[in-house]
Structure formats: structure tokens, C-alpha cells
Structure prediction request, 264 residues.
Amino acid sequence: MADKPELKGYQGFQDTLKAKAYEWLRQHLHEKPRGKIVKLASFLGIDYKANKQYLWQISSDFKTDVRNRQGLKPPNWHNWLGRIKAFEGLSREEAVKKDWVQTKAKNHYLLFVDPRGLGRLEWHIDGTVKVWVKKPVSDAKKLQLLADAFFNTYLITDIKVFTEWAKTLRQKGEDCAVHVGFDVSYFKIDLFQESNGITIVGGDKSHRDCIEARLRVPEWAEEYREKADFIIQGYKTMIEQISKPLQDLSAPKPKLAQDREMVV
Prediction:
């Protein structure tokens, strides 16, 4: 950084020079760059030519400060939400004896917080298991989280059954937080929650200096997706049933062994 200019005047003027410059720049954010530094020098009462380098350094520092402290930062995708159906035979009572916790929520869901810090799961009475995976998200991380909750707690003991069941995990949504640089009063906008699956929340206690977008697959889209999966599976089964006889018919027929005793 350039040296501060040698200024004459009242004591302590040099210490407040940058603060005065910042205040002037905040008031002239939208002013055209051309001639702006000259006007700043005139406002501060210093010679532009003698202190040109220092003035431009103040302007550069101010822009960096605005970008880092006041400007919006890139969105932070911090939660991946999935959904899976638990087996009908799995016991919620047995799960509580393991590492699952019975909550006091109205819907009486069970909570599992992963000891590795991978995420958490909510097991609802209807068998739906909501899976929250912390960033960075990967297929291995999702599988490990399910294993910690169901396989390592001996709720599911067959590795093949567990592996096939884990493949049915479907994405339900994600949470995206945008830092705004200051604490936000709590608000919630759920106008598009049912239609588009989007909820905007600000000032949540987990990150008060963020505006959060909670993105979810709408229920109506989930129903269509389940129906589409059912239809696709039906087509696959039908194709398999048709293709087997066709393969048998198209297979080359083995040559009949000749009985040499009957040859004249």
C-alpha cells in the first residue's frame, strides 16, 4: 500500500482520512468513475497529483471491502434431502433401543444423528425415512449414512437386502443459503411451496446472516414420479417376459445325433 500523504492541519487528521474517504465513496457509489478520484481528493482537501497513488489505493480497498462484507457471496449448498421407505418388518421400538431417539414432535418421528457427522435421518410413523446429508454430498456418503442408521445398528442384517434397499433412496430436495453480511430478521415465504416446492427463509437460528432457499420436489410431482416408475417397471417386466420366448425361438437348434445302425 502507498504511504499516507504528509498532511498539515489539525492533529489526528491522517488517522481519520481513510474513514472520511470511505464515507464519501459510500455516498457516491453510483457516480461515474471518470473524475471520481479527483473529486475525492477535493473533498479530503489534499492535492490529487501529489497523492494520486494513495487515493487510488483507498478506492481499491473500498471496493474490496464492499465485495467481501456487504456484497452477496456465492450460494452455499449445505444440505441434501432424500427420502426412502423403511421395510414394513422393521421395528421402531427396537430402533429406540439402538442409537435412534424418540422425539417429542407431534408426528412422533424417530431421530438418528450420525456419529461420523455425515447427517441425520427422520423415521416417520408411515414408514417414510427422510435423509439429510451434509456437504460435500456423494453416493458413498449417502450409503454410509444409511448403513450407520440401519445396518450397523442391526436393524437390517443381510448385506444384500440392505444394498438393494439403499438403491431406492430418492432425492427430495436441497437447502441453499446465501450470506448477506448482516443479521436478518426472521421471515418465511411459502407462497410457492405447494406449486413449485420453493420456500424462502431468512434469519433462521442456524445461520442468522443468511437468506435460505429450501428446494423440494412438490408432492404432486412426487406422485407422478412414483406412477412413472411403476409404469416403467411394468414395461420392463413385460419386455422381459416377451423377450425370453423370442430368444428361445431364435436360438440355433442343435443338430440331431444320427443313429449309425439305421444307416444303410
About this structure: The first strand starts at residue 76 and ends at 85. Residues 6-13 have pLDDT under 50 and may be disordered.
